[in-house]
Amino acid sequence: MSALLESLFGGLSIGSVLLLSALGLAIVFGLMGVINMAHGELMMLGAYTTFVVQNGLKKTALAEVYIFFALIAAFLVTALIGLLLERGVIRYLYGRPLETLLATWGVSLIVQQFVRTVSWQFVIGLTLFCLLFFGAFWILSRRPDFERIRGWVIGVMLPLSAAIAIVISFILGQTLKLAVTKPWFGTQGVDVTAPRWLRGGLQIAGGYQLPYTRLFIIALTVACVFGVYWFLNKTPWGLRIRAVTQNRSMSSCLGIPTKTVDALTFAIGSGLAGVAGVAVSLLGSVSPNTGQAYIVDTFMVVVVGGVGKLIGSIVAAGAIGTISYIIGSNALGPLVSFSPALKSFFEFFASASMAKVMVFALIIVFLQFRPAGLFPQKGRTVDA
């Protein structure tokens, strides 16, 4: 009983992490058809936000509840970054999944390099350029003849904003020696310490312990699932998102602002990635490569569950997490001890990396019979 409970809880905890990381991707990929390869980097930024909030509140009375402030901060930070990504890149690539894959993959590499090596001088220059160029673009877009002068605005403001930003950042860099300082975290990993009330675990029969950290992640996942379900099914904006998903042209004819819906959907999906980053930060060190460790598993959950299906993501995450844990921990080894061949087979895959190989193989076989996933789309959603 103890071994069975350990296997079920281990699989459930892994599945909850996968589901939490897949929720945002399920919204973006399932509802918008955008393959966001930068989803893992949004998780990484959420994890780093947790580290920053922890250090900021370390010597205050809120140190023991910093995790709740980190959840809010991570959601807002990554939602804002996702909104900028959608407005600046994704909005021009809707209906072209391969282009979105390449573009967001490039964004993921840029974000990783930012975290590793970018200096204050570069950050100041980039911020000035964005304020000058996009600020002027936004102000001039209010003119009634903006479409006529759009090319002229870009041709003039782009080099002018770049020149001003380069000069000012160079002067500040030489004056304040900013080029040799780095605002980010470098290549080394940083550690997030769980609050005291999340350390230890719940003792059960057989001497097995359910870690409080894993229980917290499971509870957080449940809360996020219910929050997403409530938003999509019980709010006006959720109704608009579902309407645009089913029939964009008809929704636009009925007065639904489809561009606003796209931006909101991408921002919410990105914010959920940040929340997943908070959970991931409690499980190990945070580094620029943190997101890459989860992006493939996250896509597996979305594809196996069925594109755009929340219930499918839940079932797929639980199944993949449980199977991965059972195979990786060799929980089946004692049960098949009557067969030396089967026992040696499961022992061969009894590691995290080999368990992932086995899960990949099982998913490939599964998709041969159900290529649309556990819960395929039906009706208008398929035709749209």
Task: Write a concise keyword list for the protein shown above.
single chain, ABC transporter involved in vitamin B12 uptake, BtuC, disordered C terminus, 2 domains, 384 residues, globular
Topology readout:
Elements: H1 2-32, H2 39-56, H3 66-88, H4 97-117, H5 120-140, H6 146-176, E1 201-203, E2 209-211, H7 212-234, H8 236-246, H9 248-253, H10 258-281, H11 292-305, H12 310-328, H13 340-348, H14 352-369, H15 380-383
How does this model look, in words?
- By secondary structure, the chain is mainly α.
- It folds into 2 domains: 308 residues, Orthogonal Bundle (ABC transporter involved in vitamin B12 uptake, BtuC); 65 residues, no CATH class.
- Helix content is 71%, strand content 2%.
- A two-stranded antiparallel sheet has the order 1-2.
- The termini are far apart.
Low confidence ranges: 379-384
What is the straight-line distance between the termini? Answer: 49 Å
The coarse silhouette is: globular
Question: SSE string, helix = H, strand = E?
Answer: HHHHHHEEHHHHHHHHH
Number of strands: 2
- The CATH topology label of the largest domain is ABC transporter involved in vitamin B12 uptake, BtuC
Helix content: over 70%
Q: Compute the gyration radius: what is it? A: 23 Å
Q: Which CATH architecture of the largest domain?
A: Orthogonal Bundle
Tally of individual helices: 15
Label the structural class. mainly alpha
Number of domains: 2
Mean pLDDT: 82
Largest beta sheet: strand ordering? 1-2
Q: Can you tell me the CATH class of the largest domain? A: Mainly Alpha
Tell me about the largest β-sheet.
2 strands, antiparallel
